[in-house]
Amino acid sequence: MPLRALLKGQAFGPDEIAVLTQAFEQCLVELNLANRQDPATQLVAKAIFDAAKQGERDPKRLSEIATKALSK
Fold it and tell me: Distance between CA 28 and CA 10 in Å, rounded?
């Protein structure tokens, strides 16, 4: 999973990782992205990761941020 690769070695706890994973999965469903090797999937993961590094922890908001990042 692209998100797990970004999280490797980062200081996120189990609860935070669960929130990021929830946001990632939610966003993939909303964008109808099933192929985990699709470059768009990697962009979603990076957008969620970057927003989480900035302090965002709401899964719905993380998903919205990632969706907007893809529409740019």
Answer: 22
Give the residue carrying structure tokens 């935070």: 16
Q: Could you report the per-residue pLDDT of 29-40, keeping only the tens digit for each?
A: 999 998 988 999
Q: Which two tokens stand for residue 9?
A: 């070695």
Burial class (CB in 10 A: 0-12, 13-18, 19+), 69: middle
Cβ-contact 65, 44 below 8 angstroms: no
> What DSSP state is assigned to residue 32?
T
Q: What is the pTM assigned to this prediction?
A: 0.85
- 58: region left, alpha or beta (phi > 0 left; psi from -120 to 50 alpha): beta
